[in-house]
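BUG-253 | component: ligand-complex export | severity: low

The export step for zinc ion jobs runs without errors, but we want the raw record kept on the ticket for reference. Input record follows.
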Amino acid sequence: MRFCSLGSGSRGNATLVESAGCRVLVDNGFSLRELYQRLRSVEVEPNSIDVLLLTHEHGDHVKGVWSFARRHRVEVWTTPGTWRAVGAPQIPALRLLSGQGQSVKIDGLHIRSYPVPHDAREPCQFLFEADGRRLGMLTDTGCVTPHMTEILQDCDALILELNHDPELLRRGPYPPSLRRRVAGDFGHLSNLQAARLLDALPHRAIARLCVAHVSETNNHPELVRASIRGVCESLADRTLILEQDQASAWCAC
Ligand SMILES: [Zn+2]
Ligand SMILES: [Zn+2]
């Protein structure tokens, strides 16, 4: 299995995951033109994508999902709540996943959805398994539940949100209502919350940690790295901070 980010942050998110014979795109918060450029940079043909998974209806995840699905006749998998929240658009093929979590197999790739607390209608995140390897994905969640901690045990690679530093958020330019939203239980994970989650996982076994959805206003790469180092010095060496404006390199899992 391997994966890469096509961009991560509040201005757009998309992630590719593939294993033998199967290629999946998680979210597309970019215009078609922008997505094509980013796919080219990682040498992926748009027509080679088998399934598009959608985590939730926020614009930074859904912007180019429906246009991509129609043009390339790609099946979209999402929860009923997310599909309704965007107005139940007509697309060539749709598979509705239970908002409580569900496992689906496509070729050799096992995909498990699981629910997360976020201010969307029925948001979920995903765990991927292939050839005995596990890739966990967790962004856009306001807090960590015991269920989520259990799902993310034993990951070989993890894409994890470290959205904000609480102090920068408190002192920053966001209006109070937005600040409360981001910091709330249905907002985004702070560096501290993510570090606590890592501490509750067997993090020495995580061969690659990709830090996602980092706020450009309320966080800083140095603070992110310090938070990871606080959990495990060696994990910091295996950490990649994903960028908003460009795709990452392919990461093996
Ligand atoms: Zn988001
Ligand atoms: Zn969101």
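Assignee comment: Attached the raw record above. The pocket of zinc ion (ligand 1) is lined by residues 13, 58, 60-61, 140, 213 (CB under 6 Å).
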